[in-house]
Amino acid sequence: MKFAIFGNTYQAKKSSHAETLFRILEEHDAEIFLCREFYHFLVSDMKLNIHPAGLFDGNNFSADMVISIGGDGTFLKAASRVGDKNIPILGINTGRLGFLADISPAEMEKTFNEIHTGQYSVEERSVLQLICDDKHLQCSPYALNEIAILKRDSSSMISIRTAINGAFLTTYQADGLIISTPTGSTAYSLSVGGPIIVPHSKTIAITPVAPHSLNVRPIVICDDWELTLDVESRSHNFLVAIDGRSETCKETTRLTIRKAPYAIKVVKRYDHIFFDTLRSKLMWGADNRI
Fold first, then answer.
1. Boundaries of CATH 2.60.200.30 in the chain?
2. pLDDT tens digits for range 151-166
3. What is the pLDDT of residues 42-71, one digit of tens each?
4. What is the pTM of this model?
5. What mean pLDDT is predicted for residues 256-283?
């Protein structure tokens, strides 16, 4: 098989398992192609002696499977590079939580034995698309986790007039608003009180950040519905964060959010079940009194 590999280039310990990964792949006679930035990090900072079949920049690659080695942030960057290529992504978790990258380093050998024999599943995860007239945001308008509309720095809260399929929903007076996919429901949205959504539910969650009114609650809608957002701010601008990549927007910018025309494919081991992940990652059912 041909693998394209992305990795964390900020913390050496998060890439410390890369050497083991390359050894396992070579044992399976795999073709290894590395993101150039990751390759230079491994050679210069990690002092690894590696000889990939090739290097690539940006999204200029093809492969049978993409490997992300790092945390969920690294996985999101890999997903943005994969885009609509329809290449499945395997996430090896060397970070902390690991909802997207859920293969532990200890599982690598067994996982690639299973991949070699075709014993794995591929899940399709929906993606959000942002449409607006801001050229900076349109450079990379797709989000696997969420699109967040946020106030800037220490400015006062913003007003976000929200419509669904053209019908007025409400005007949120808040520090921000998070529009998340089911995949992103366990990320930023969850941290501000949003619901956990199973990956294949075909929904979108709308979760306010620190709303002014306590009777404003998250709402879950169908993922084939379209949202329109008009933002007012005393500073006359606000932030838009697409999977953590943020840009400043003028308050005259109308934002339209809809389901993207493609999905991201995520490689899963057969014994990795979403509910097991919830219990282990979020410690559901754990009793600290014992």
1. 126-260
2. 987 778 999 999 999 9
3. 998 888 888 999 999 999 999 999 999 998
4. 0.92
5. 90
Please pick, among 29, 45, 57, 72, the residue that the annotation labels catalytic: 72
Any binding-site annotation on 286?
A: no
Asked whether 238 and 149 are in contact (CB, 8 A), the reply is yes
Q: Is 233 annotated among the ligand-binding residues?
A: no
The answer, yes or no, to whether residue 115 has pLDDT greater than 90, is yes
Does residue 190 have a known ligand-binding role?
yes
Please give the CATH topology (third level) of the domain spanning 126-260.
Tumour Suppressor Smad4 (2.60.200)
Q: What torsion, rounded to 10 degrees, do the Cα atoms 67, 72, 74, 80 define?
A: 80
Residue 186 among known ligand-binding residues: yes
Instruction: Please count the residues of the chain.
Output: 290
Q: How far apart are CA 3 and CA 123, in angstroms?
A: 18
CATH number of 1-118+269-280: 3.40.50.10330
Is 72 part of the annotated catalytic residue set?
yes
According to CATH, where is 3.40.50.10330 located in the chain?
A: 1-118+269-280
Closest residue by Cα to residue 136 from 217, 240, 230: 240
Determine the longest span between alpha carbons in the chain, in angstroms: 60
Residue 224 has pLDDT above 90, yes or no: yes
